[in-house]
Amino acid sequence: MAENLVIYPGSFDPITNGHLDLIERGARMFEHLVVAILTNIEKRPFFTVNERVHMLEEVTKGMPNVSVDTFSGLLVEYAKRKKARAILRGIRAFSDYEYEFQMALMNRKLEPTLETVFLMPAEAYTYVSSRLVKEVLQHGGNPKNLVPPYVERRMKEKLAARRAANG
Fold this sequence. Notes:
Radius of gyration: 16 Å
CATH class: Alpha Beta
Structural class: alpha/beta
Number of helices: 6
Low-confidence stretches: none
Helix content: 40-55%
CATH superfamily: HUPs
CATH architecture: 3-Layer(aba) Sandwich
C-alpha cells in the first residue's frame, strides 16, 4: 500500500504559529506531511524561497514525518508527482471557506482522486495570517507569540538589514 501522504501548500511568508499548529496536527493524522512552498514569481515576498525552506526545516526538525519542498504550477500536478492522497488546508474564517471551497472543487475537477482536508486552527490562531504578521513587524509591533521564536528573530534581522540598506 502506498504511503498516506498529505501536502500542506502555501507561501509561508513567514511561517506563523497557526501554520505550525496545522503542521503538527496534520502530521499526527497522516504518515507523511509535505509542507510545499509555492514559488510565485509575481509576488514580492518578505523572505526568499530558500530562507522559507530553511525556516520551515528548522521549526519542524523534531517532526520526523514532515518534510519541506517547493513547487510551481498547478498544485494537483505536484500532488500527482508526489503520489499524495490529500491536500491539507486551514480555514480561519468564513471568508477563507469560500475561497478554499472553490479551490477544493477545482482541484477535484482536475484530479478526482485527490481529497482536500480542512482543519480549523487552534482558537488562539484564528486571526493570525502571514500578511498581518508582516504588517505588525513593519509598523514597529512585535510578532512575538504570532510566529515561532526562530522565525521572529529572522524577521527582525531581515527588517533591520532592509532598513540599513535603505539608509
